[in-house]
Amino acid sequence: MSSNLDQLYRQVIMDHYKNPRNRGELEDGALTFNLNNPTCGDRIQVSMQVEDEKIKDAKFEGEGCSISLASASMMTETIKGLPVDEALQISNIFSEMMLGNDYDEGDLDLGDLEALQGVSKFPARIKCATLAWKALEKSVQQKEDEE
């Protein structure tokens, strides 16, 4: 990656960290899941309002480093309005990107998420970037287990 692209990606990450989108909690039957990263102290709670297998709204709360909070902000922006299965597909693509593996996003729009691809060079930070995504996956799994 060129240094200009690295700089742009850093700016996108810092913008989401300093001005998080969708921060807060959802009530009234929202799917909610909390996850912690004990190695660095990051804590994320993801809440989603799902109707007819579509994510109507998504919010997050938490504390942590710029990577974990920016990733949570980007995730909520990305998944709002998507069918649950498409959100899970993006989550899988994001995990592959974080592991430095080849991925094919097909016709899915990763948006600002691509700014986090440089995290794959820092194995200790991958858990920070994927924390909110794991909470998304676990909340969906929990809902499926209850049905």
Automatic annotation (TrEMBL):
Identify the residues that the record assigns to the NIF system FeS cluster assembly NifU N-terminal domain, covering every copy.
9-128
Where are the bilayer-spanning segments? Answer: none
InterPro entries xrefs: NIF_FeS_clus_asmbl_NifU_N
Instruction: Spell out the CDD domains in the cross-references.
Output: IscU_like
The domain of life is Bacteria
* Protein name in the entry: SUF system NifU family Fe-S cluster assembly protein
Q: Which organism is it from?
A: Pseudalkalibacillus berkeleyi
